[in-house]
User: Fold this.
Amino acid sequence: AGSCAPAGAAMRTEISTAAAFVTRLLRAAGGIGEEQLRCFRECLQEALREHYKHHWFPLVPSKGSGYRCIRINHKMDPLIGKAAGMIGLSHERLFQLLPSELTLWVDPFEVSYRIGEDGSICVLYEGPQPGGKTSKPLESRSSCKEEWGIGRSSPSKNYNMMTVSS
Assistant:
């Protein structure tokens, strides 16, 4: 019974993190006013909240992950497209402004993204999990410092070699 907590408050941080990230990508591309960006971010947050309402499971964070995944892969994610439409940005314009391949995972306690189909996965937000267990082994992640600003359209060929020192 406890798993049916209203998702609204619980997922606020994750949703605002995801919306702020996409907004930051648009801001970095340039040519969009701050007022439009603010409106875009609010519209996107609202669309995500609505979309995730019945698909948020803090007790099983990976459940519904595919449904919550935001994806641009030569097709525009409908939620991003909807928010952009509110400020008069066409899909064509969005494709010029955003990476052509972007995947954003918005899960309870973790928001992460990947640019390019074989890029490394970067964590944007990691919250404390109830019970203190982490959902994914962190060794498989590389920490990314604003990596998205470089090489917009070129497929990433940097395969990260992880070295383990004792």
About this structure: The beta strands are 70-73, 101-107, 110-115, 122-126. The first strand starts at residue 70 and ends at 73. Residues 1-5, 137-163 have pLDDT under 50 and may be disordered. The chain has one domain: 7-126.
